[in-house]
Amino acid sequence: MNTSTLPSARLAQSPAALYDGRWWLVGETGSVPLSDPSFVTVLDGFAEALAAADHVVAALCTRPDEPSALQAGGRR
């Protein structure tokens, strides 16, 4: 997934934010654009993994007719 397909948003309680297809570190005193390609690639991968996890959780939440692992005696 490239950064242009990700929504502009803060990345999961981190100082990293995607704005207009570019990653930024956001702090109380201002923002700094990220230019290290390796770090940007890691952020892209992390954002993609979070989006996939969110999608799976949303799909699980929309299937109320199936018991959850906890209801079926499963362990966490």
- Mean of all residue-level pLDDT scores: 79
Q: How many DSSP H or I helices? A: 1
Order of helices and strands: EEEEH
Beta strand count:
4
Portion of residues in helices? 25-40%
- Report the structural category: alpha+beta
Radius of gyration: 17 Å
Structural overview:
The protein is of the alpha+beta class and 76 residues long. Helices cover 33% and strands 21% of the residues. The protein has a four-stranded antiparallel beta sheet, with no helix packed on it. β2 and β3 form a beta hairpin. The N terminus is likely disordered.
Write the layout of secondary structure elements.
Layout: E1 9-10, E2 16-19, E3 22-27, E4 30-33, H1 37-61
Antiparallel strand pairs: 1-2, 2-3, 3-4
What are its keywords?
76 residues, alpha+beta, 4-stranded antiparallel beta sheet, 1 helix, disordered N terminus
Give a concise summary.
By secondary structure, this protein is an alpha+beta fold. It has one helix at residues 37-61; strands at residues 9-10, 16-19, 22-27, 30-33. It contains one helix and four strands, in the order E-E-E-E-H.
